[in-house]
Amino acid sequence: MDDNGIIRLIELRDEKAIEELTSAYGGYIRSVAYNILRNREDALECENDVYLEMWNNTTFEEGRSLRAYLGAVARNKALNMKRSRKQEEDASSDVSLDDIAELIPDTKPDGDILTEYELTELLNAFLAELSEDARIIFVRRYWNCEKIDEIAKRYGFSEGKVKMALRRTKTKFEKYLNRKENYYGQEKTIAECHNRY
Amino acid sequence: MDKKKLLQNAITDIDEKYINEAEEYKTPEKKHRSFSFGLTSWQKGFVAACVAIVVMVGVFTMPSIINSAIAAEPTPTANPAPTPYETRDMKDVNIFTDYAEKGVRYFQKTGDRYCFYGKEGYGYFEELGNSPHLPQAISPKEFNDISELRNGIYTDYDMSDFKFVCQDRTEYHVMTNYLAWQLYDLDNDDKTIDWFNKANKAFAENIEKTYGYAPKIPEAIEYDPAIFSEDLNDCYIGTAELVLDDGNLIYSYVDGKLSCIWFYACDTVFEIYSDVKQDWIHSVDGWLSDLASLETAPRAAERLRSISEASWDIERQYIYDCIEACANGDDSYSFPTDWYNRDKEKYPDKFYEEIWYGEKK
Question: Which residue in the set B12, B15, B354 is minimally distant from A75, CB to CB?
């Protein structure tokens, strides 16, 4: 059954929708959740939460990717579950946002706090500038929370290439965040703005 | 502001097209960088025949475009015809003598391809089993005309400025006057770099003084100081007559003799032998302590220590094995094919492929 059919079932409150969702996207949802939680039972619990969320979301936007939506919901659920259980970052997962989170400036060039929406927009614009390989590696690492060897294996890359791509992307991201025109389209760096004031 | 949480949420909401792209991406087949692109087999044969004819004519009617430093006039036995080499095993080829005599400045094996660079031009050829043909020399202009490399570094520079070019998987590192490195990733269009650090600036000034023009700076160069540090100012590459790169080991020759060996791994160049020091590094531990005291390679020392502490067991072992073998003067490392074969016996295929080719074949 295609995505439109599944959505239609949900709108009709037909419980067969859950069956179809599980069949089409269960594996994907579980993998997204598992990469974050690194626990099978938690991932299954998360999966069920995603179906519940989907069931309760009766206004799914037309034209949206169902898979991407489900993945985002799974990701959010898993992250929240992790936080609520005060789990420490799994060292074996080796996925830490610390190294790129530190690149985010405290404020925008005009002194205002950077909002989540604005950072998302910056990220989207930044990702658009990356090569395909660098972009998918970034997404796999930080959105899907996959380990480096998992990414390498998935795409047939060497681990060295994945590591190198992540490192370079981080460097580029830092430069990108430091260029004012990426916020407002003017040729100034954040450092220059800070110096000015 | 909790930057990590902010970033986590922002990443969650990135455009779904990127999420789908990562899900649907399939690694394309690697392009085979051959001398003929998209030609039919009869066209390839025709082109190859034309090239061979041009080379043969060039040998007899013009100074060799490979070698302008040969003392003796080319003799019929030095005629670069491929036939004498077709049946020779690679390990029987004295790379250094054969190519150094012909003025080849740089010779590199990358995957199944051999590239050489001569003073006035360069070319490349492909290894057929263990019997490489003699390289067919072509001029930089002809090389630049090859469509696949048109967007690469070669169109931006006069190749005679280059000391050598090292290919590391999909990336090209260009060494010019040992003061500057440029890193091009031919698999993508990312080209942002700060060309002028202090060493590169000095280099550019030298080039202008020597050649009368400042090197053109391509719009996008990525310089990764983690790979090659300014320590290389002390190296011999700048004066080397011949540089060989067999993947992880880089050899330089001066006056026909081995002058220096670097071991390249984990994004770092480690100098492991130099004739000035008149010694090999005899043990990894000794080397670590030597590196720590060497002013020329503090970064390499730090890097190696971090490797030792990392969980890359196989890679660490590989490095140690290389170093130990070099320290014992094992000159089989001079022959890429021998090292290739021995490596293959010792290490798992997966590791082997990744070390030598950077990706699964």
Answer: B12
More confident residue, B35 or B22: B22
- Tell me whether B4 touches chain A (CB under 8 Å): yes
Question: Residue B178: which residues within 8 A CB-CB, separation 6 or more?
Answer: B163, B232, B233, B235, B237, B238
Q: Do A20 and A5 touch, CB atoms closer than 8 A? A: yes
**Mean predicted confidence (pLDDT) in A103-131:** 85
Distance CA B162, CA B184 (A): 15
* Exposure of B97 in the CB half-sphere (CA atoms within 13 A): 4
Residue A105 has pLDDT above 80, yes or no: yes
Residue with tokens 């859950």: A18
HSE-CB at A77 with a 13 A cutoff on CA atoms is 25
- Phi, psi values for residue B243, rounded to 5°: -130, 130
Q: What distance lies between CA A164 and its chain's CA centroid?
A: 20
Q: Residue B181's beta-bridge partner residues? A: B175
Res A84 pLDDT > 60: yes
Radius of gyration, CA atoms only, chain A = 19
φ and ψ at residue B171, rounded to 5 degrees: -120, 145
B185: which strand partners?
B171
User: What one-character DSSP code corresponds to residue B283?
Assistant: -
- Give A123 to chain B, closest Cα distance, Å: 7
Residues B153, B172 contacting (CB under 8 angstroms)? yes
| pLDDT over 60 (residue B240) | no
Most confident of B48-52, B154-158, B318-322: B318-322
Helix (H) or strand (E) holding A69: helix A66-84
Which residues from chain A sit within 8 angstroms of residue B184, using beta carbons? none
Count CB atoms within 10 A of the CB of residue A66: 18
**pLDDT confidence of residue B252:** 53
ipTM above 0.90, yes or no: no
Sign of the dihedral through C-alpha B293, B295, B297, B299: positive
Structure token pair of residue A35 = 């990469």
Chain B residues within an 8 Å CB radius of A135: 18, 21-22
Rounded Cα gap, residues B216 and B208, in angstroms: 10
pLDDT in tens, B294-341: 333 444 444 444 444 433 344 445 555 554 554 454 433 332 333 334
Three-state SS for B222? strand
What does the block give as tokens for A125? Answer: 């614009």
As given in the structure block, the two tokens for residue A148 are 């480096």
Q: How many residues does chain B have?
A: 361
Phi-psi domain of B282 (left: phi exceeds 0; alpha: psi -120 through 50; beta: other): alpha
Residue A109 near residue A115, CB atoms below 8 Å: no
Distance between CA A110 and CA B117 in Å, rounded? Answer: 52
Least confident piece of the model among A136-145, B180-189, B305-314 = B180-189
**CA atoms of B330 and B347, how far apart (whole Å):** 18
